[in-house]
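thread: overnight batch results

M.L. [08:02]
morning all. the overnight job finished for the chain we discussed friday. pasting input first so we're all looking at the same thing
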Amino acid sequence: MNQRPQAQPAPARSISTPTEARKLAEELMEVMSALLGIIERETELVRAGSVREAMRLEEKKGELSRRYMVAVENLKNAQKYLAQVSPELLATLRRHHDTFRAMLQINLTVLATAHAVSEGIVRGVNTEIQRKNIPSTYTASGQRAAPGPRNITPLSVSRSL
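M.L. [08:03]
and the structure it wrote out:
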């Protein structure tokens, strides 16, 4: 598997001025908005059945997720200071973050549904293949005989379409 070197996120920093606090809040809002845009687009594509196109968003989504984690860590480190200097900014960040989490939950639900549907399709195809490959035999008492392990054919799936 090809693994690309990943850019290291910026280290956590401390906040000591109101200007730095506002900049931190703006960074977090910017990252959440960008990540929310990617997540909404991914949700739309998966709902429309364009999974391959949705997968193309993975790299950008990963980079934004790393930036988000660093921004949240910075915010945690500066939370006491922000509460003292700018409680209204902290409240605004919390409201925006609650909206972000709600949208993320919708995205996760759509992805879980798509996964369950695709798994159901693969299992259905496998059952049908097995049914066609297994001979119908009966025991001396007229009961249907269970197939042996050599009659079961594994299903192989090509991931490169």
